[in-house]
Amino acid sequence: MDCIFCKIAAGEMPSNKIYEDEETLAFYDVSPQAPVHFLVIPKTHIRGVDEINESNSGIVAHIYEVIAHIARQLDLDNGYRVVTNCGDDGGQTVGHLHFHVLAKRTLAWPPG
Ligand code: DGP
Which of 30, 83, 86, 99 to mutate to test the pocket of ligand 1 (most atoms within 8 A of CB)? Predict the structure, then answer.
């Protein structure tokens, strides 16, 4: 499968890694939309939120634990936003489930 995030997770493509464990990887986004912008992905290929089901949803809880852990490490005390785009209308461009974490600027709501 030709998936850039699978390649990053496998170490076949470089990334600016922040955190890694057996199930997840976190790395800085190549096109940052905020002073701090990183992605957290499952190492297992899941296309997006539309492929989450009762057999794989445990990874989502774990990813949120990872996000909270990294946020504490990076001192994101003033808050941050977690975003997951899904499908074409959601603006998803990489078909491997990922959670954007944006911080260190005030973010507009609604996002537009
Ligand atoms: P989305 O549009 O929600 O699917 O977000 C995909 C994000 O992935 C986008 O913000 C840019 C980022 N991205 C795409 N390719 C790479 C890459 O090769 N390395 C890194 N670090 N980020 C990437």
Answer: 30
